[in-house]
Amino acid sequence: MVFQWEGRALKTFSKKLGRTLINTGFSLVVVTLLWVIGLWAFDVSTYIGKNPMDVYNFLFTREDAVANQELVMTALNQTLYDASIGFTAGIFLATLVAVLFALSKGIEQALMPIAMLLRSVPLIAMTPIIILIFGRGNLTVAVMGAIVVLFPALVNIVFGLRSVSPAMSDLVNVYGASKIKQLRTVAFPTSLPAFFAAIKISVPGAITGALLVEWLATGSGIGYGIVSAVGRAKANEVWAYVVVITLVSILLYNLVALIEDYVLERFGFSKAK
Question: Which residue of 8, 76, 82, 99 has the lowest C-beta tally within 10 Å?
Fold first, then answer.
């Protein structure tokens, strides 16, 4: 019986993996077509606008291709590291604040205006103050990344925690469960779809935040590399950075979607096909 269940689970996972690969391939094809059509439609100069073959040659066929690969991959590794810091800080803070909101309306009324303020004020305007307070290290990366990720993740998680059905809420109240126990036993499992929605939004958001913090504060990674390459009129390098970070963003998003399918199925959620 166990082997049969494992076989079905493996078969289901294989189907979802295949569907994810197809979705990823389709996304890449669409992005590539939009790229080529955009260059053609706007008649972008070949000196500035590089097509997919130009990027491919820059990374794989030119004499300096190995050096170009090392340059781009080094910057990518730094950006992914910065994005992971911002993503972790943002999701942790959003989850913590969402739990506080679920426990107390008063806390929500006190903290929500602050979250709205962080969302409303442009990050570029806050950057000098953040740098003065936290410097140009990982703490600034965490703060700026968390600001980008916080609000959309917070809204989704709060919605998920409050999506418990009235009947279920009444049932746990009848048994005298505390608010914390209600969150742990009912609200958290119910909020899983919204939590994964928050994660899917936050992954590209964290990458965007990392690019911003690299450009405005740290002077490293792809964010700084693009600005530096533009200043040195190295269009091939600029497009290589853009292509690589776009590709990674698509892959990470689809990876999260695959994990979401697996987890939600294990917890008994059915997704529309």
Answer: 8
